[in-house]
Amino acid sequence: MVLFSVSRITVLKFLGICALLLLASSFFTAYAQTSGDVDARKAQLERELADLERQIEVQRGLLSSKQRESVTFERDIAILEAQIEKAKLEIRARDIEIGKLGKEIVGKNQVIGALDAKRERQKDSISDMIQKTREFDETSLILVALANESISDFFKDLDTFQALQGELQISFTDIRVTRVETEEEREALENRQTEEEKLRTIQAKEKARIEENEKEKQNLLKVTRGEEARYQALLKEQEKTASQIRAELFQLRGTAAIPFGQALDLANFASSKTGVRPALILGVIAEESNLGENVGTGTWTEDMHPDRDKPVFLAIMDALGFSPDAMPVSKKPWYGWGGAMGPAQFIPSTWACYGGFINTTTGKCGRNPDNSWVGPWVYNSDKDIIRKLVGKESASNPWEPKDALMAAGVLMKENGATTGTYEAERLAALRYFAGWGNAGKAAYAFYGDDVMDLAAKYQAQINILQGG
Question: The pTM is what?
């Protein structure tokens, strides 16, 4: 019986390992099929997205062209229609991008699941192989010879067996490496998906603006019946006088927003120091906080980044003599961190570079060489750019409108807004929102467009004031 088992064990081992290798082969075939399906769908979505982005650029070009024309009924209706269509296209593009990422994540999850299942099957097979290997190792060469199996054939089988063991180990290593790489790819995709979800959340207000524009368009058509003379008469009737504008709050009467007269004075002052157009500074502040109305309902303990911002925030509070628990900051959204301060919505680690806060580890306002933000942080009045520009003795204060508008002007200047062209100002606004590295992303285009629309509205108000 033992003699028979020697020959059988050798064969069983050979066949068992071959089966394992076939399993590995079948897995990578399935993986290739899954990957191919995901890639095909991804390519289709990318084509759709590229087409939508082309359409968005057409609408953006139409808007830019129409806004330079003289005011007519046809021109203003065309602008409204272009704004409506562009916003709809941008929302569709966002949904497609999120869907594309979701498909890729599903594909990565499928690969990870298949890898885990394959690994479990191999574990069971290896247990059987180990048991058989022990029996094989305990069998003597004499018994092999008595079983009519030559010594040379035995060692050939043994060499084959050991080679297959090596292949199996390589298979395990490949699975482990592939799983790690796939998990990293999935994590990167999930981060991108979170970013897109964030943008879609922000873009919800774009949908509200579409609805407002639709109502405005319908109202114009109803009141004027499409006649140019009626439209010009309506514009004349609705045009505010300089005294009316000075008395109003940019449609924010009874709120915490900065009154128009004060906002304009502060924007003009910031412009005199930075060269950035006052209407553009107002556009940024309006986009960030509705001209100071919405500076946040969060708390530093719950909503602020613990390493990057909290230590700097405490240094800012110490320099200003404020209680950190008493100061409002932006609330943490579900997709990231809050903690932005004041009308210009600077996060503490960004304010540090304009408000004179130095990391004593590096002697600079930024992060450490190891990419950390470990301090301690101290206030240096000589480094307080905002304090010097506004001409005050005390530390600059991100909640103070004068300081906030000056800080926005300085940052917009650094972002290239002083060139004065539409394109340069829009790009500077995008950099204000997303940084230099992300400013060119199509996903962020709506922010730049919003700021420029607001700046155009405020410029019209300013023109009336200057003429009145």
Answer: 0.62
User: What is the distance between the alpha carbons of residues 99 and 402, in angstroms, rounded to a whole number?
Assistant: 43
- How far from chain centre, in Å, is Cα 59? 24
**How far apart are alpha carbons 199 and 209 in whole angstroms?**
16
Residue 214, C-beta contacts closer than 8 angstroms, at least 6 positions apart: 84
The 3-state DSSP class for residue 219 equals helix
Give the model confidence (pLDDT) of 180-230 as tens digits: 777 777 777 666 666 666 666 666 666 676 677 778 778 777 777 767 777
Question: What phi, psi does 301 have (nearest 5°)?
Answer: -70, -30
Q: Tokens 């942080």 map to which residue?
A: 377
Task: Name the residue type at position 55.
Answer: Q
Dihedral sign for Cα atoms in the order 426, 427, 432, 434: positive
Helix ranges restricted to H, 68-150? 73-137, 141-146
pLDDT at 2: 35
Cβ partners under 8 Å of residue 186, min gap 6: 105, 108, 109, 112
CB atoms within 10 A of CB 289: 22
The mean per-residue pLDDT over the stretch 59-86 comes to: 76
Q: What is the pLDDT of residue 21?
A: 45
- Tokens representing 101? 């990422």
- In this structure, are residues 297 and 331 in contact, taking their beta carbons and an 8 Å threshold? yes
Q: What is the dihedral of CA 10, 15, 20, 25, to 10 degrees?
A: 140
